[in-house]
Every structure is written in C-alpha cells, then in structure tokens.
Design brief:
The chain contains ten helices and no strands. By secondary structure, the chain is mostly helical. About 6% of the residues have low confidence.
C-alpha cells in the first residue's frame, strides 16, 4: 500500500468520524429537546393551566438546519417528501439533518483530498455539493414511483368507492374501508385525509390539499368531480361511475401511446447490438471468400 492510498484512507476515516460525531450531537440535541418537552408538559399538568407553554417546547435545531427549512429549497424538499409519502415533521427534520451531515463530511473529505491529491480544486470542491444533493435524487425517484403507483390503482379505487356508495355505506366509510383493506400509496393518502377530517378539517380542504400535494392530473380531476357533489348536489354514485369510466379510458390511451413509442425506443438497441452481429453473419463468408481469392 503506497503513501497516497494510506492518506486517502485516513482522510475517509476522519470524514466518517466527523459524520458519526455530528449524528451523536444531533441525537443529544433531540434527547435534550424531548426532556424539555416532558418538563413543560409536567409544568402544565401541575399548574392546571393549558396556556403555560414555554419556548422550550419547540425542538432545538442547529442554525444551518433551521435556515434550510425556512428557505425556498426547504419548501420544495418538504413538498417532494410529501409526494414520496414522508410527511411527518420529525422525518422531514431528520432528512434535512442527514443532508447537513453529508455536507460536513464532504467538506472534511475535500480538505484532506486537496492536501494529498493532485486533482483540480473545482472538482474536489464539488464533492460537498454532490454529497448534499445526493439524497434529493433518492427522494425524486421515490416520489415518481409513488405517483405512478397512484395512477395505476386510481381506477380500481374509484370502482370500490362507487360500489360502497351504491351499497349505501357512504363516501367517508368507503374511504375508510379502502384505507384499512388496501396497501398502496393511495390508501395511505386516504388515511391521511380521514385523519385530517377527524381533527376538524373540512372534506373540501383535505381533498384539495391531497390533490395539490401529489400533483397528479387524474387525481385532481377526481377530487374536483367529488367536490361538485357539495356544490351542485349531483349524486355521488353517478360521479364515481363517470370518473371510473374516464380513468380507464385515460389509462387505455396512455398504454396505446406507450405501445406506439416502443418501435422508436428499440431502434437504437437494434442498431447498436443486433445489426453488427447480423452483418457479420451475412457478409462474413463473402469477405472470407474475397480475401482467399486475392490471397
């Protein structure tokens, strides 16, 4: 093992040690905030006054994490995490803390690599940026996969809602039945909508927030159609039947569109991999014969 490789391993070890230390400090801060929260709850319980709320109830965060949360990038990250199915505030703060930890680890690794390697500094300075934004690619991919899954199960879900409404169960009870019996992203969103309605939000606000959060055109159209029941007094069963038929037509058109794009997509692999082999098989004997005749 040469000296440069040893120095690289030492720098990576220091970066890992700094990352572990930072995560330990964040865990200590979280434990301290939880203890402060318990003390404040105990104070409220002893005083008998629910308005005795101190500033220690809010969880303590590092200034950098708080600045990221309050920025436009933090708003975009919160929305993207919501589309990916991560909407708890604790999970959001944990995600931002992990990104800050990766940024600090990337800075430490960059400082060591600048001293021991001959790579250009712009390339090395891009390492912390890549480390900070690498989790965004994971979130975006998860959000896209979740949106595709919602679009796939939406027609069947509308059919089940229509059957529940026709049987006299009711729209809310049908959403609850689907949320309890199905394991898919749309049933999770229904569970969140029902939870928001239980704490006092109206059905209109909860459904509109779901449509805005997911930003799926088919789901937005379904929500707008359901809200027409409250505005125009249209029967819910008729609305759901029409929406189910429309969603199936849209899915059929998308499948036809994907089938029409298939020949264009497979053209490049055919030209790169199959055509050379086919030319070798067809023209190979002729080339050998020509070379032998002129040999």
């Amino acid at each position: 093992m040469n000296e440069s490789t040893l120095l690289i391993l030492i720098s990576l070890g220091y970066a890992a040690l700094a990352l572990i230390t930072l995560r330990f400090l964040l865990a200590r801060m979280r434990m301290r905030s939880n203890r402060q929260l318990l003390r404040s709850i105990d104070l409220v319980h002893r005083s008998g006054r629910p308005d005795v709320i101190t500033a220690s109830v809010a969880p303590s965060r590092s200034p950098l994490v708080q600045r990221i949360i309050d920025s436009n990038y933090g708003s975009w990250l919160r929305k993207t995490l919501g589309r990916a199915g991560i909407w708890q505030e604790e999970e959001y703060q944990k995600w931002v803390s992990q990104k800050v930890s990766l940024l600090i680890a990337g800075l430490i690794a960059t400082l060591f690599l600048i001293q021991i390697t001959e790579l250009s500094r712009p390339i090395l300075l891009s390492l912390p940026v890549v480390a900070f934004f690498v989790l965004d690619a994971v979130v975006i991919d998860r959000a896209k996969a979740r949106v595709v899954a919602i679009e796939r199960v939406l027609p069947e879900t509308i059919d089940l809602l229509g059957m529940c409404v026709t049987a006299g169960i009711g729209f809310h009870a049908g959403m609850q039945r689907i949320a309890n019996s199905s394991e898919n992203p749309l049933s999770q969103e229904f569970s969140r909508v029902l939870g928001e309605m239980k704490v006092g939000r109206s059905r209109t606000d909860a459904l509109m927030d779901m449509a805005e959060r997911l930003d799926v055109p088919a789901l937005t159209e379904f929500v707008n159609s359901v809200l027409q029941v409250d505005r125009l007094g249209v029967p819910m069963a008729k609305i759901l039947e029409e929406q189910s038929r429309r969603m199936r037509v849209i899915r059929h058109e998308k499948a036809r569109e994907q089938a029409q794009k298939l020949p264009v997509k497979i053209l490049a692999p055919i030209m790169l991999f199959m055509m050379p082999a086919l030319l070798i098989i067809v023209l190979g004997p002729a080339v050998v014969s020509i070379l032998q005749s002129f040999g």
